[in-house]
Design a protein that fits this description.
252 residues; mainly alpha
């Protein structure tokens, strides 16, 4: 029976310990995956899988894994080939780590998207990754709730493909496909059979709300956490754009 991965090992301990635990945790997952629902089995992917298995609640972990499966399937429908048109491991890392800001380990004063991006960067650096992949993962996670960003032609042309592909999969899992042809017929049912929603987007929303009620710093105005807090609890203080303008030092 594999030894559990400790928080210290995963986030900041010796890389050797992370690798050993990640390989042990990832091997069983890869072997049990049915056709079409497999995940990357690289050392880094297994370490990430070990991290989310320990730190993410079941509904959140399933959301992370489904996001990857939907992202890859949607990309394939567009003719984009894994490890030819994009880096599968990198896209997997974005998907499974994108909501780490909603875990106890990633809960800081930053809004959950930025807190998760920071934790993901530290995780990669602790595992010996210091190149542009850290920047790609950070950008993708920090911006993943920015609506319609990956629809920009310049964004698609200038930013790494893994960001847009991952964000598409995340969006599919939160609100559903944009059109009936975005996923293969019956694919979503297969994914949900193996990785049930367990409350789905409502559970995700409640997790965001719980953080913002406990710490208003995590709900800055004009962000998703800020809007969720304001819409669910309109009586709580909320800084509007006009209030920001009224307080500006130029007295405009």
């Amino acid at each position: 029976m594999p030894r559990p991965v400790t928080r210290r090992t995963v986030l900041g301990g010796a890389v050797t310990g992370v690798v050993a635990a990640g390989l042990a945790a990832g091997a069983g997952t890869a072997a049990a995956s049915p056709p079409g629902l497999s995940f990357p089995t690289t050392r880094l992917a297994r370490c990430a899988n070990a991290l989310i298995a320990e730190t993410q609640q079941s509904f959140l972990r399933n959301h992370s894994l489904r996001s990857f499966l939907f992202a890859r399937a949607a990309a394939e429908r567009q003719g984009r080939r894994p490890d030819e048109d994009y880096d599968t491991e990198l896209m997997f890392l974005i998907c499974v780590l994108h909501d780490m800001g909603l875990t106890d380990e990633g809960n800081t004063d930053q809004r959950f998207e930025v807190a998760g991006a920071d934790l993901a960067a530290r995780f990669l650096e602790a595992n010996g990754v210091t190149d542009r992949r850290v920047d790609t993962v950070w950008d993708a996670i920090a911006l993943h709730t920015t609506q319609h960003l990956h629809g920009s032609p310049v964004f698609q042309r200038r930013r790494p493909a893994e960001i847009g592909i991952a964000q598409t999969g995340i969006g599919i899992d939160v609100t559903g496909p944009d059109n009936p042809d975005q996923l293969p017929p019956g694919f979503a049912d297969r994914v949900h059979t193996h990785y049930p929603r367990l409350g789905g987007s409502r559970a995700l929303t409640e997790a965001i709300l719980e953080q913002t009620i406990a710490n208003p710093l995590k709900a800055p105005p004009m962000t998703l956490p800020g809007e969720i807090r304001h819409q669910r609890h309109p009586s709580l203080p909320y800084l509007t754009w006009d209030m920001i303008l009224d307080a500006n030092s130029w007295a405009d």
